[in-house]
Design brief:
The protein is globular. Helix 3 crosses helix 4, helix 5 packs parallel to helix 8 and helix 10 packs antiparallel against helix 21. By secondary structure, it is of the alpha+beta class. It has two domains: 283 residues, Tetracycline Repressor, domain 2; 318 residues, Rieske [2Fe-2S] iron-sulphur domain (Rieske Iron-sulfur Protein, 3-layer Sandwich), CATH 2.102.10. The strands form three sheets. Strands 11, 12, 13, 14, 15, 16, 17 and 18 form an eight-stranded antiparallel β-sheet that branches.
Length: 655
């Protein structure tokens, strides 16, 4: 594809917008209103921008606005179309001016992307506002989709030409789309920085970083800019454009920033990116003893239940009737012998989820019953516990917990039975704050005097693969001072089924993002934490134990519960104080010690899932999702670039 072809393809701008030379303007009054709209959106956001506010900013009357635009929607669309046309005009002019050399054309595109006219912070805010608000996203895709694709294809064509110039070896191992995604992702990341720190934004530094990227990928065509390089002594990128997701890798480990612990936009991202794909405990297999037995689970806007079928198999379904979305089963648990019947209109399902009967079926058009069964959910049984997840993909529970499977097998979890009722609580603490506290023992001595009195200095902790971790404490050999700890230690019977090293040990096994098995010689608890709202969390726990009616066992389990109730109350108090402190203007990030290994790993897992969590300062309202996409694209591009470099090095070494 030639540069002439690229230019021709890029002339297809939004419907209703005529192509113009950069710098030309529409009818002055109309241009004045569009400029005022840009300011209004940047100041108030899309939803709060009104015709009255636009009129006031433009120094015109509301009637004048209505003369040019019949509605707010028409004005907003015209504003976005104007920005698309302006942006594409700059890109077309840059390519045309560069001539036939693809390297010169890429240099020209970088200059154009960071032109002060294009990167006016008000205009950047409009782009992100349309993309981040769901009601406006369709307009964005209709107006900008073709332009975005054309820009990408133009850049990819230039990258492909440069790769071909590098010879057959490079052509064989380098991927033009991956390189292009790297560059476009970097540009978008640098663009998004304009919204968070426009007063400190350094366009020249941003352009240098883009050129440094090109030099690292295409060293035969680009030179590393002065002041940017790799190796010992190379200066770091300016803070405003530094890759935020890597800041925590400094010698002094920094915590997640305070803003991610109480931000509605970030919480929405967590639900979609972290919790929907996650495995969640529903129950123990012993709670589903016969055909028709079910246990339900409601979390994060999803309703599910696990059911034992007539064939003895366990299956999981969305608890949503295919007729009108009523819950099919009621309460946390129960039994539906023979069939499931929705209480709303009587639709009836077999225990395998297929639709059996429809009340007054003759009043419907022909129904495709095989297609109207209950929607299935992925299910896995691990050591007697039933897990489900709402979005498939990634390793299963057994694969993730494999490093600890041998140790867990000693406890005979599949043989356990419920020991206490399900416990639920909502606290005014973010879910991450709860796990930050849970996953370190640094605070035990001062935060949990009773637990510290029971546990000795033999403290093990490790972060495993696939978002798993283990913490473990051995009990003290000498008598304890507190009443509960002293009597628990004295009354705890020998657990003959356990190896010697586990008979006086409390261990905790964590599965990211929100579940843990707390395992003791006498019983175990599952513990779940979910976000319920920004800055709030739902806690859920239930105890299970092997059948054992000895008096000393019952007493030990009572004292265990007493100790852990005190620990939970202490943790609630500690994390509530932290949550309040996170809102202080004096706090941005904290630091962690070498003992807080799992806490660091947990926060890394959050950053990996949502790179925007690496930003110390909260992005502008309405831009958190867009910033996260930009950072994720940049990270993916860097990973792709590293793979390309490794493959190229291997290819050249093999010659």
């Amino acid at each position: 594809m030639t540069l002439e072809t690229i230019t021709k393809r890029k002339t297809a701008v939004a419907p209703g917008s005529a192509a113009r030379e950069p710098g030309s303007t529409p009818e002055p009054r109309r241009r004045q209103l569009i400029d005022a709209t840009i300011t209004a959106i940047a100041t108030h956001g899309l939803s709060r921008t009104t015709l009255a506010k636009v009129a006031g900013l433009a120094g015109m009357t509301a009637g004048s606005v209505n003369f040019h635009f019949t509605s707010k929607e028409a004005l907003l669309v015209a504003t976005l179309e104007s920005l698309v046309e302006e942006h594409d005009g700059f890109m077309e002019a840059a390519i045309a001016k560069a001539g036939a050399d693809p390297a010169d054309a890429l240099e020209a595109l970088i200059e154009a992307q960071f032109d002060p006219v294009i990167t006016d912070p008000r205009k950047v805010a409009v782009w992100y506002a349309f993309w981040s608000e769901s009601r406006a996203r369709r307009d964005y895709m209709r107006i900008c989709g073709g332009s975005d694709r054309a820009n990408f294809e133009a850049c990819m064509t230039l990258c492909r030409q440069i790769i071909e110039e590098g010879g057959p070896e490079r052509s064989r191992v380098m991927d033009a789309p991956a390189v292009t995604r790297g560059l476009t992702g970097l540009v978008e990341t640098l663009w998004s920085e304009i919204l968070t720190s426009p007063e400190h934004y350094d366009r020249e530094a941003a352009k240098r970083l883009c050129r440094a990227y090109l030099a690292s990928v295409f060293p035969w065509r680009f030179e590393m800019p002065e002041g940017v390089g790799v190796g010992e002594g190379a200066p770091a990128a300016p803070q405003s454009v530094q890759d935020a997701s890597a800041r925590h890798l400094a010698v002094t480990r920094r915590t997640l920033p305070a803003w991610v612990y109480d931000n509605a936009e970030f919480t929405a991202l967590e639900r979609e990116a972290i919790f929907r794909p996650a495995w969640h405990v529903v129950c123990h297999v012993s709670e589903l003893p016969e055909a028709g037995s079910y246990v339900a689970l409601d979390l994060l806007g999803e309703r599910a239940f696990v059911l034992r079928g007539k064939d003895g198999e366990l299956r999981a379904f969305h608890n949503v009737c295919r007729h009108r979305a009523h819950a099919v089963v009621q309460g946390r648990s129960g039994r539906c012998p023979g069939v499931l019947q929705c209480p709303y209109h009587g639709w009836t399902y077999n225990l395998d989820g297929t639709l059996k009967a429809v009340a007054h079926e003759n009043t419907f058009a022909k129904l495709d019953k095989p297609d109207l069964g209950l929607k299935a959910i992925e299910l896995e049984i691990f050591l007697g516990f039933v897990f489900v997840r709402f979005e498939a993909g990634g390793p299963g529970v057994a694969e993730r917990m494999a490093p600890y499977a041998a140790e867990l097998a000693h406890y005979r979890l599949p043989d356990m039975r419920p020991h206490e009722r399900v416990w639920n609580a909502e606290i005014e603490v973010d879910w991450k704050n709860v796990w930050d506290n849970y996953l370190e023992g640094y605070h035990f001595a001062t935060g949990h005097p009773g637990l510290s009195d029971l546990m000795g200095q033999d403290y093990d902790y490790e972060a495993g693969p696939h978002g798993t971790a283990r913490l473990s404490h051995a009990m003290r050999a000498k008598p304890c001072k507190t009443w509960s700890a002293r009597h628990y230690r004295a009354l705890l019977p020998e657990a003959g089924h356990l190896p010697e090293g586990l008979r006086r040990r409390w261990s905790y096994f964590f599965l990211f993002p929100g579940m843990a098995f707390d395992i003791y010689p006498d019983r175990m608890d599952f513990f779940r934490v979910l976000p319920s709202a920004p800055g709030k969390a739902l806690l859920c726990s239930r105890s299970y134990a092997l059948p054992d009616e000895r008096r000393e066992t019952r007493a030990a389990r009572y004292l265990n519960s007493r100790l852990n109730t005190a620990v939970q109350d202490e943790d609630n108090s500690l994390t509530l104080s932290v949550q309040q402190g996170l809102a202080s203007s004096s706090y941005t990030t904290g630091v962690t010690s070498d003992t807080e290994v799992i806490l660091n790993a947990f926060q890394d897992w959050v950053r990996e899932a949502l790179p925007v969590a690496g930003l110390d300062r909260v992005p502008a309202p309405g831009t958190v999702a867009a910033r996260n996409r930009a950072l994720a694209a940049g990270a993916a591009a860097r990973a792709g670039s590293r793979k390309t470099e490794v493959a190229l090095d291997a290819s050249l070494a093999a010659r």
